[in-house]
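Let us begin with a simple case.
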Amino acid sequence: MATELHETLSRLLSKSDVFVEKYRLLHNQYAALKNDNDNLRRSIEKLRLENEKLQQSNDYLKMARDIAPNQDSVARTRALISQIVRDIDKCISQLNE
């Protein structure tokens, strides 16, 4: 009977050693995954802030493009002003006659 208890105790101790070793392994994996998760969360936050800044910059550029004239409209406006100046010059010369 003592040998049976000794063998049972020996099996329990070996099983508990295996259990403890698996626990340590899982605990280390958990710590590594938690660290990776924290790093990824920081990266996500950094990318989110960068995305917001780029979105705001894009909105400003769209606004500036809508407000600022493009080359075609500048050329048309200059041509129109030149035509108006010529018409005014003609009117002035007719008034002087």
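The second case is a distinct protein. As before, the sequence precedes its structure tokens.
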Amino acid sequence: MILLRHWKLIFGLFAIYVAGICTGLVLTVGGIKHFVDRQANQDFWVKARLAELDHGLKLTTEQKTKLKPTLENASERFKGIVREAFVKVIQTVNATHQTINQELTPEQQKSFEKMRADNIKRWEEFAKKEANKAPPKPM
């Protein structure tokens, strides 16, 4: 019963604790998103790989000039691979949905078609967004 006398203090400390957790989550998610977006930028990726090679190998200016187009080409090819992969994912989703649709009643098919259209739209938007990103930093 003594704790109930101090309910305002307990509530205040709990509120501070919850606010700290929420702030930590927001900052962590924001930091991760910033890092991923920065890594996904094609120009940043090319510059970072070139800087990494220069740091490890002490490249000459001439070597940097010759290697930059190679890295840009690789980045473009990676984007193509990502596009192809998402096309295959969408094709697989379509085939799966057709198989599922065969097992449903006409009423369920109408509802499923709406769900399917929403899912495909989300996948296509995601694929377009991801296809414009450069590949991640190699290990």
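Residues 41-139 form one domain. The chain has a mean pLDDT of 81.
Keep these points in mind for the review questions at the end of the chapter.
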